[in-house]
Amino acid sequence: MPFRSFNRQQAWLLPPTLGELLPAEHPARFIAEFVDSLDHETWTQLEVSLDGEALGSPAYHPRALLSVWLYGFMTGVRSSRKLEAACRDQVSYLWLTGWQHPDHNTLWRFYQAHRQAMRKLLKHTVAIALELKLIDLAVQAIDGTKIPANAARDRNYDAADLQRLLQRTEIAISDMETQNDSGEDASPPRLPEELQQAQTLRQRVRNAMNHLEQHTNLKRVNLTDEDAQLMKGRDGIITGYNAQAMVSPLAVNTAKGSGMLITATNVVNTAADSGQLASMLEQAEEMTGERVPITLADGGYHTVANLETGEQRDQILVMTERYIDTTQGPYFKDQFLYRPDTDSYVCPEGQILHFRGLRQNKRLPSNQYRVYGISRTICRGCLAYGVCTKDKHGGRALWIGSSDRLLNEHRQWMKTDKARSLYARRQQLIEPVFGILKEQLGARRLLLRGLVNIRAEFTLMATAFNLRTLSRVWNRLKQGISLKSKRQHGMVMRYIFELSQNIYFSFMIACL
């Protein structure tokens, strides 16, 4: 088998254009289309001026810089230094910048100045999908994932640890200052590096102590990132954040393929998901302009407050209970039959529990419960004693609160075939989204620090995820238009051929 000719010194006979080096279906082309489609109002919302300055050296165009960052997030490159290298080496970035090479300082300054405003681009991607009728707003799914912060786990301290660290740092600073002043030589114009580091550490410790004093709900603080918290993830205990996402599927009949779009995001520094559902429902409605009737969630979101939110908003919540096993027993309180005429309950063994009075929950003093009970003599003589109750002094008691009706209705709803069928879709909707974000967009670890910056970073990841989805749809639509134009071209050519044949036969007949 002969070898192909190989020459690293090969020159272009005719220099190619940038467009010839990039395939027509390349995602970078869609990024350029997306950025170029932004109107003046959108650029104003991004706090970017397209007019430029009359004086000074020429600056890089904001369209080029925004394209680089969006394509970088889309391909998992979120470092300004890596983007600088990509703008020198990779054809797609060279095409986006018009063969310009912005350095990492230029890229970072643009990102730092506009990343908070760039969060609004997520809504812009959703608006494009809504305009093309790509989103199926019949159902949506929510979930959270733990992402490690840009901070070391061993830098977490409680108040006592911070006090001891501050004392050791003060002693070290005092010793170094004494050594620095004891010599006969003149004082150096700058502080020694070790002393500078110790003073920086002292200031960090003081800031961390103030942070704990201001946030009484926190027990520990990280010196590198004060907002990051210890929480349990799939890989064990991490120092990180809890990222939330709401996802809606693509409309199959319009997109002609499967896919998802993120319609709401949030990042919190608490491990629990339960407190995030209400705000995410509101954000998704604000993004899409519609209230999605069905929301799928796992047991981490199952609380009475969330069930009440769903009822108030007239949205169906399909979610399992976190402690579902405790509700399946034969003597769980849902198995007791209520008799409204006598205001009493009948247990599964046929015994009657009478109303005993109103009680307050010690954990939740604002919640009032109606307590129903039975004598201990009857309970201790029952065959179910030890299973139904183990109380030797008072017998079985039922605490019935205002939320029991809602909980019972939801349990009965989750037992239906429709609810089970809907819940089976939850995993296939939301889990692939987090998989793509972590494996392909680099969300295995956050790069910025501070909750405000982390929210901007994760929102841009969600924007990049939506741009990936829209890019595939954009290519399908382009292919459809191309095929249509080819069919039209073929019809025109057949018409011309038939017309030419008719003219030829008419000419031959005339000649005869």
Description of the structure:
Helix content is 46%, strand content 15%. It starts with 26 loop residues before the first helix and ends with a helix. Helix 12 links the parallel strand 7 (294-297) and strand 8. It has 17 helices and 13 strands. By secondary structure, it is an alpha+beta fold. It folds into four domains: 18-114, no CATH class; 139-150 and 227-325 and 416-470, Ribonuclease H-like superfamily/Ribonuclease H (Nucleotidyltransferase, domain 5); 153-180 and 191-222; 332-395, no CATH class.
List the helices and strands and how they pair.
Elements: H1 27-36, H2 40-45, H3 62-74, H4 80-89, H5 91-97, H6 104-114, H7 121-131, E1 139-148, E2 156-158, H8 159-182, H9 193-214, E3 220-222, E4 229-233, E5 236-249, H10 252-255, E6 260-268, H11 277-288, E7 294-297, H12 304-313, E8 316-319, E9 337-339, E10 344-346, E11 352-360, E12 368-373, H13 376-380, E13 397-400, H14 404-414, H15 417-423, H16 426-439, H17 451-511
Parallel strand pairs: 1-7, 7-8
Antiparallel strand pairs: 1-5, 2-3, 4-5, 5-6, 9-10, 10-11, 11-12, 12-13
Helix pairs in contact: 1-3, 1-5, 3-17, 4-5, 4-6, 7-17, 8-9
> How many distinct helices?
17
Gross morphology is globular
Strand pairing plus helix content: what structural class?
alpha+beta
- In CATH, the architecture of the largest domain is 2-Layer Sandwich
Low-confidence stretches: 482-487
Query: Helical percent range?
Result: 40-55%
Number of domains: 4
Write down how many β-strands occur, each being a DSSP E stretch of 2 or more residues.
13
The rounded distance between the terminal residues' Cα atoms is 61 Å
Main pleated-sheet profile:
6 strands, mixed
Beta strand %: 15-25%
